[in-house]
From TrEMBL:
Top-rank taxon, per record: Bacteria
Protein's cellular compartments: Cytoplasm
Membrane recorded as keyword: no
Main subcellular localisation: cytoplasm
Protein name: Small ribosomal subunit biogenesis GTPase RsgA
Enzyme Commission identifier(s): 3.6.1.-
InterPro entries reported in the protein's UniProt record: G_CP_dom, P-loop_NTPase, Ribosome_biogen_GTPase_RsgA, RsgA_GTPase_dom
Family recorded in the similarity comment: Belongs to the TRAFAC class YlqF/YawG GTPase family. RsgA subfamily.
Broad enzyme group: hydrolase
Gene Ontology terms: biological process: ribosomal small subunit biogenesis
Cofactor(s) needed: Zn(2+)
Organism per entry: Pseudoduganella violacea
Amino acid sequence: MIEFDFAVLRRIGLNNSILAQLSMAEAAPGAQLMRLTEVQRDWQTVHDGQAEHRARALPRLLSSLQEQGSGLAVGDWVVVESHAHGELWISRRLSPFTHIARRANDGRRQPLASNIDTALLVMGLDNDFNPRRVERYIALVQAAEVAPVVVLSKTDLGIDVDNRIAELRQRLPSYIPIVAINSLSMMANTELKPWLGNGQTICLLGASGTGKSTLTNTLTSAHQETGGNRKSDGRGRHTTTARSLHICPDGGCIIDTPGLRTWRPDADGETLAATFDDIESLAAHCQFHDCRHEAEPGCAVREQIDPDRLLNYHKLLRDVQRSQQTPLDKISARAKWKVIIKAARTRGRDKRSV
Ligand SMILES: Nc1nc2c(ncn2[C@@H]2O[C@H](COP(=O)(O)OP(=O)(O)OP(=O)(O)O)[C@@H](O)[C@H]2O)c(=O)[nH]1
Ligand SMILES: [Zn+2]
């Protein structure tokens, strides 16, 4: 039997999709369900809904995750066993319902965060305003099956808010919510309430200086120190504050880790096509089957899609194609170009000498 208090764990994001896995989980007596809030090489921090504890993962768990090409990430739900001397050991990871990973330079996938329902894509209405970047983030979080919400911050700066919202609204698919807020105002709580129900987990993504920390403070104002409830029940070492899990007093919790902060989006072509499905579905109506929506007559896409959104789509697709090349592909692509350029130069010389 795995012990847990639903109401307490719900504050840190427990939901039915995780619970459904528990009945099948074998565990030692007294094992507890907890949420991972920090992942280091040799140790982890887990949250039991009230306080954080230092724990370690069983080597067999780590190697089986590694075999699956996966690994522990902040936000994972784990089964924690208590061994002799109060040591806590993570024995099992429940399958995450969403998983954000980044591709490391060597091509491996590196887990960043698990079990996030909604990503707030924070963008300042000031100089930071950049629809292309938002489209890129949307593609990425959708690839992880996390729901995107575009949050335009700094409405108080007297920037032409309505026009900028209209510009984005016209450009993005209609199912993507756009919310404009002042991160410094408590009103932000009301505006973001739909994504902060009890049991919901959100994360904040966006460039530096857009107001992610400010907004996190506003949303969690009554609970700055989520793990601050010190317990001394002798199990594991307690830490006082949750560095990466913040509980919102009215429901919901926020995951904020250095990994997510420095995460720069990458995606594959299929994912991009899914995010730009407005373009893909219009393309079926172009006169030419292989229309590139550039100068072809009878193009259905150019008529309806914001030209910059179309440009961005093509640019992202090119990026994807490049990033999916292996080092060998890149070398052979470069070699091919060298041949082409050399041939063009030779042709140029031949023409001149005629
Ligand atoms: N006027 C105004 N200022 C804001 C708002 N949101 C954030 N700021 C200010 O913008 C600056 C940057 O905000 P942060 O919350 O630190 O931004 P961040 O996204 O967390 O930045 P990093 O930590 O670098 O990722 C701070 O000086 C904030 O006070 C807002 O809605 N209105
Ligand atoms: Zn076309």
